[in-house]
């Protein structure tokens, strides 16, 4: 492959055992932009992406993608996930999440259904608009109660989702804003902190009041025409916008399942790794001529059964190896 070829073509040539589709090449090109031109990191991120979507990857979130599943449809009513149609003046995307929705019943929210659905929405939007741009997320928790979060963070769903967004997905979450936290009870706030802990303070910011979104964004504001009514915009009500995305999920059901099968059946070429000796072992060998060196029992081998020239103390002590000047080791 010519060095002048694009990152996507070179990566596909070196890592895929099949020909990539044009859509794949478009997505692969985003990794280099997301990693700010660092092709080594972009190559690692792309490989993690394919592994996450393959066998043994994020099976609970990226596999069995059926939008008409009962749990997914219930999640559509329990929590709103609305990606905005417009971008900020700086070119960033935004997703608004209402957790829970005002129409949600007083019952635990399914983390698996919520995050699997979120990934499906991200994939559909990436298909519609495969252009670079960081993601800003606003999560409105004004109606959140402890009962909604019962067992919500028990599994690894949030941990896997955060890992995916941080290290594997073609686009990156740059900021996550939790708004309306002043209404939360202590237990709800604690559980929310525990669930979002992997993002830490570098990404997650909490806002006690329902201050205007564009006030939080500052100079990189979003046009009011693209914001929902509830947040000072003119794009429509959150419920209506969420219903539109529910319909879009159902209409893309076949495509989601085809994509799942394609990535699941994709085989990657073996990863080339350069093996290096442990530093301590190399240091010992370099200075071993005509001297005694100490090696732990964990580095011993079956040949250490002779006790003629070995000084062994109590069980678990170190063994001393003799090294002659002709560099032949014996024990």
Question: Secondary-structure blueprint of this entry?
Answer:
Layout: H1 7-15, H2 22-34, H3 39-53, H4 59-62, H5 70-78, E1 80-83, E2 93-98, H6 111-128, E3 135-140, H7 157-167, E4 173-179, H8 186-195, H9 200-203, E5 204-207, H10 213-217, H11 238-251, H12 253-264, H13 279-286, E6 292-295, E7 311-312, E8 319-323, E9 329-330
Parallel strand pairs: 2-3, 3-4, 4-5
Antiparallel strand pairs: 1-2, 6-8, 7-8, 8-9
Helix pairs in contact: 1-2, 2-3, 5-6
Protein architecture, described:
This protein has 331 residues and is of the alpha/beta class. 40% of the residues lie in helices and 12% in strands. It has 13 helices and nine strands. Strands 1-2-3-4-5 form a five-stranded mixed beta sheet. Strands 6, 7, 8 and 9 form a four-stranded antiparallel beta sheet that branches. Strand 2 (93-98), helix 6 (111-128) and strand 3 (135-140) form a beta-alpha-beta unit. It starts with 6 loop residues before the first helix and ends with a strand. The model is unreliable at 285-331 (pLDDT under 50).
């Amino acid at each position: 492959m010519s060095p002048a070829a694009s990152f996507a073509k070179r990566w596909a040539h070196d890592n895929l055992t099949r020909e990539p589709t044009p859509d794949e090449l478009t997505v692969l090109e985003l990794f280099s932009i997301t990693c700010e031109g660092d092709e080594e990191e972009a190559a690692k991120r792309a490989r993690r992406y394919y592994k996450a979507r393959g066998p043994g990857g994020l099976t609970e979130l990226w596999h069995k993608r059926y939008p008409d599943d009962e749990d997914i449809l219930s999640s559509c009513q329990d929590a709103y996930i609305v990606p905005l149609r417009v971008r900020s003046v700086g070119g960033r995307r935004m997703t608004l999440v209402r957790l829970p929705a005002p129409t949600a019943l007083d019952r635990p929210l399914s983390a698996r259904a919520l995050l699997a659905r979120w990934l499906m929405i991200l994939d559909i939007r990436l298909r519609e608009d495969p252009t670079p741009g960081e993601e800003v997320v606003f999560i409105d928790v004004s109606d959140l109660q402890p009962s909604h979060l019962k067992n919500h963070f028990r599994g690894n769903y949030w941990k896997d989702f955060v890992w995916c967004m941080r290290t594997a997905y073609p686009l990156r979450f740059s900021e996550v804003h939790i708004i309306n936290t002043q209404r939360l009870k202590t237990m709800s706030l604690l559980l929310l902190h525990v669930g979002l802990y992997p993002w830490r303070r570098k990404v997650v910011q909490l806002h006690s009041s329902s201050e205007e979104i564009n006030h939080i964004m500052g100079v990189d504001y979003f046009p009011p025409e693209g914001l929902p009514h509830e947040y000072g915009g003119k794009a429509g009500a959150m419920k209506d916008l969420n219903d539109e995305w529910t319909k879009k999920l159902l209409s893309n059901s076949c495509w989601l399942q085809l994509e799942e099968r394609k990535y699941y059946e994709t085989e990657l070429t073996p990863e080339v790794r350069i093996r290096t000796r442990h530093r301590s072992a190399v240091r010992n060998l370099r200075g071993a001529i005509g001297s005694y060196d100490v090696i732990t029992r964990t580095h011993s081998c079956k040949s250490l059964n002779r006790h003629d020239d070995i000084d062994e103390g109590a069980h678990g002590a170190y063994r001393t190896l003799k090294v002659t000047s002709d560099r032949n080791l014996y024990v």
